[in-house]
Amino acid sequence: MSHNEILNLAYALFLSYLKHNKVMDLQETEAGREYLAKCERMKVTIPDFAKLKQATGYKAKVGE
User: Could you report the per-residue pLDDT of 8-63, keeping only the tens digit for each?
Assistant: First the structure.
């Protein structure tokens, strides 16, 4: 794309291209892939209760 074509893009479309380019650059290195994996983990809003129980040493009550 030429400079003028980029300037005439809709703002949302420009940001979409910019994000896509940044992700592609990050995927090229191991550190970038780790960063993207951390970003994906940060998006998770529902806790994994099984992992929390293992990490905290939670013991179920007798009879549960």
Answer: 999 999 999 999 999 999 999 999 999 999 999 899 888 888 887 787 766 666 66
Q: Which phi and psi (to 5°) does residue 44 adopt?
A: -70, 125
Distances (CA, A) of 6 to 2, 23, 25, 33, 36: 6, 19, 19, 28, 26
Q: CA 9, CA 15: separation in Å to the nearest integer?
A: 10
pTM of the model: 0.61
Assign 47 to helix, strand or coil: coil
Backbone Cα Rg of the chain: 21
Q: Are the C-beta atoms of 9 and 17 separated by less than 8 Å?
A: yes
